[in-house]
Amino acid sequence: MENPLLLFPQLNISASKDKSYYKVMKSTIKEEPHKASKPGSVSPEEAVKWGESFDKLLSEKAGLDAFTKFLKTEFSEENIEFWIACEDYKKSKTAHELLPKAKTIYETFIQKDAPKEVNLDFQTKEVTSQNIEKPIITTFDAAQNTVYRLMEQDSYPRFLRSDPYLNLVKGRNPSRPTLRRRSRSFTVNDFQGVRPDFTVWSDTGETMAWSESMDTLLANKGGLEAFRTFLKSEFSEENVEFWLACEDFKKTKSSTKIASKAQKIYSDFIQADAPKEINIDFHTKTHISQNLSEPTLSCFDDAQRLIYSLMAKDSFPRFLRSEEYKELVKKQQNGNQKRWLPFL
């Protein structure tokens, strides 16, 4: 497989700008000549504009750089790198350019166990795979749209709540984070300032089983608490809290309590500017609002499925890739080995 940095040099965000292979995507990223994109040079006015829309954030070079750094702390920079690669791919002018770029994108981001595999549904992945031998400009459009929506609905709101972004809005220059590189992504959650501590659950004897499925993780008390701690470090604990609230709601037997619980869930998680507002589509939100006057035990089912799917496809894989989870598994494995081989 060809090195993706040779075909897509803009993915090498650590490269110096004076190197010949560093290219800024002019049609995608606007960099005004009087505004440098160096760290600390973003004005509060610029940063505030990033909050207007996800498109606005991605259209500014400084905004794209800040968002990419944020995704690295969440173990999900593959999403923005895939989006950038697709934007570059669509600028190809000849069929000769399309094929090598298409194969590199497919091998880097799409195929099973790709080094930077993005989360796509089966149908989108199948359609993309079938068209890879004779690619056209729109070959990756469906996949790119899927990843774009995932970032817009999940990562972007967390970015806007993160301390580095809020510091930029307030005119504070965040200190340069200390990052440690691993094979796939950065491992330090420098946006929270405190790494999640899972060691309190290290003696459960069930840590490795959590990786079997998100159902297994959520069904285990220690697993659920570890996952909640991880989501807090990602500014997205509202997702699992909403899921838990829905699970509790479905156990309600009294019609009076159903109404009061439904109203509380709506006020806490669904309505505009709710304190723990979750990201769901307009249709689902409207459907819930219309049924709130006479709620049933199934009134939040669609929203709960959406949030579960979001966690399963996005947060759960990052949790399993986190250094904290891996360290916990390693400790358990070492403990099991010493139990069976006490002479070690």
From TrEMBL:
InterPro entries linked to this entry: RGS, RGS_sf, RGS_subdom1/3, RGS_subdomain_2
Keyword Iron recorded: no
Domain RGS, first and last residues per copy: 53-169, 213-329
Alphabetical list of Pfam families matching this protein: RGS
Protein name stated in the entry: Regulator of G-protein signaling 18-like
Keyword annotations: Signal transduction inhibitor
Organism placement in taxonomy: Eukaryota, Metazoa, Chordata, Craniata, Vertebrata
Ligase in keyword set: no
A biological process from GO: negative regulation of signal transduction
Species, as recorded: Grus japonensis (Japanese crane)
Gene3D superfamilies in UniProt: 1.10.196.10, Regulator of G-protein Signalling 4, domain 2
Superkingdom: Eukaryota
